[in-house]
Design brief:
Elements (H helix, E strand, L loop, with lengths): L6 E10 L5 E4 L6 E4 L7 H7 L7 E6 L13 E5 L14 E6 L2 E10 L3 E5 L9 E12 L2 H6 L11
Antiparallel strand pairs: 1-2, 1-3, 1-9, 4-9, 5-8, 6-7, 7-8
Length: about 160
Amino acid sequence: MKIAENNVVVIDYTLTNNEGEVIDSSEGAGPLAYLHGAGNIINGLEDALLGKEAGDEVKASIEPKDGYGEHVEDMKQEVPRELFAGIDNIELGMQFESETDQGPVMVTVVALEEEMVTVDGNHPLAGVHLNFDVTIREVREASKEELEHGHVHGEGGHHH
């Protein structure tokens, strides 16, 4: 069966940046299962896997626009440290959910000063060229429940 919209796809993968550093991998965590076409994975990887089948090995080079987007400098903001009341030890790399006019956004602490904290609302992989090495383990029809929920159930997927 070839990968198409509304198929369950199970993959092993390794994700690296252009410097060859491993960013993420399914090794040790078990395979990733996703519902093709439901937005469970980035568009660029979905496009690269479309039409492939179990047993195929795919190398995909994904530009930032088809991954987590370009890095937008305007998404960095300095905020008063007092907005973090109740948090005794703020550290670089910590993530917080921030309410915005467009809804909640995850922000990452990228700089600390005595009175101010700089947070970045970009995804940590925004602006990064992504390189995937993927082995497709399984392709199957999604169940009615998986289609209704928009994600895979069971091993490698979502557990209710």
